Amino acid sequence: MCKDELTSEELFLKEGDHSAKLPLVDVHDSVMKAIGLGNDRLMMEQSQLQVENTPDVMQSMEPVVEAKRYRKRTMGRHMGRWAAALILIALLGGSYSLFIESPGQAAKFQYEVLPYQPLVVTEEGGKVVKSNKPIFFSEEKVLQRQESKEERLFREKYSEAYDAVEKLLLPEEFASYVLRQEKAGGESPMIGVVNRAMSFKDYSSYAAKAKRYIAPDLKQPEYMPEGYVFDQAWIIPYFEIKEKELLALSGGFKLEGGYRVSWRKEPLGSINFDISRLSYRKGQTIVNISAKRLKEKTGIAESLMWTKNTIMENILVNGTQLIYMDHSRDGKVKLGYKYKLVWADPKNNMLYDLTASPESSLTKEEIIRIAAGMMN
């Protein structure tokens, strides 16, 4: 079985990455000269999906009348050379730049690919890193301990307690509770929280609540691929559980079977609204963009899950370095996404990530352009 199969919703609450700012290694001129391309610049179409609508950057270099003949003579030769150039650059352990010219939004777009390194995300040196070991699929069966009748009943009562407390709350109210068996020698008390996420069907409602609760203010991206529309937004609240205070609570209400629930409403001033998320949809394909305010300023701020099939690189775009993860060859291990980008705003202790769902047909360039449109 898979050691860590998570849904996209679970991943949203448990994700991360690290990367240091590295000096750029410019091997372009020497490599281009070695393969006989002189000082030509590397230009590529944004994606195969847009190739028919993409202006031909070669056209401005020749008379229009000769354009088609010239391309037929040179395209095959140049594409072979570009492939050789990228392979040679990879072997040299350096970086390379891609320049995209396309119609519509953000007409000129350039980024640089670097070898993977942990990402520095706070001014104090906090980092996002990939986990020490990859997640893998194991055929070994994990023995499950048989749940006793008493344990199953207690678990059911815990869920019942949550539902009962939730009904006592108004929207945007939060609570913590403790479930006890009143008879002596029963199961140990269990603590729970009612910590509901705020969801919004329009961006303006989210923006107003984010301002009110000082949640991360996620701007809508300047660029989204054709067909993608705003789906919904979330603000995720969080508060510290004060275990000793909860266990000291008395009163509350009874549940059938000799159970008691003691609970309290958490004051608004104790709630942290440190996570925001936007979701864009095209059919069944979803792009999620989230922001998290970092509390820990040093050490490892996040640890990224990966598999042996995951491609990991660093991307430099608009002066910001990102970690790029390609999980399209996921095999048996499902991480809940096809692409993932992670970047940070160290001055404001903010960590961002962007994921595209597994069925996405978006290209690497499109994913990076979405992130680039969030950085202004």
Order of helices and strands: HHHEEEEHEEEHEHEEEEEEEEEH
Structural class: alpha+beta
Over the alpha carbons, how many angstroms does the gyration radius reach?
A: 26 Å
Question: Largest sheet at a glance?
Answer: 10 strands, antiparallel
Nearest-integer average pLDDT = 78
Strand content: 25-35%
Describe this structure in words.
- The protein is of the alpha+beta class and 376 residues long.
- The protein has two domains: 8-18 and 134-372, no CATH class; 28-94, no CATH class.
- Helix content is 22%, strand content 29%.
- It contains seven helices and 17 strands.
- It has a ten-stranded antiparallel β-sheet, with helices on one face. The protein has a four-stranded antiparallel β-sheet with strand order 6-5-10-9.
- Keywords: Membrane, Transmembrane, Transmembrane helix.
- InterPro entries: DUF4367 (IPR025377).
- It holds the Pfam family DUF4367.
Short description:
Helices cover 22% and strands 29% of the residues. With 376 residues, the protein is an alpha+beta fold.
Give the arrangement of secondary structure elements:
Blueprint: H1 8-12, H2 28-34, H3 67-92, E1 96-101, E2 108-115, E3 119-120, E4 127-130, H4 149-167, E5 175-181, E6 190-194, E7 198-200, H5 203-212, E8 229-238, H6 243-247, E9 253-255, E10 259-265, E11 272-282, E12 285-293, E13 300-304, E14 311-317, E15 320-326, E16 339-345, E17 350-356, H7 364-372
Parallel strand pairs: 4-13
Antiparallel strand pairs: 1-2, 2-14, 3-4, 5-6, 5-10, 7-8, 8-11, 9-10, 11-12, 12-17, 14-15, 15-16, 16-17
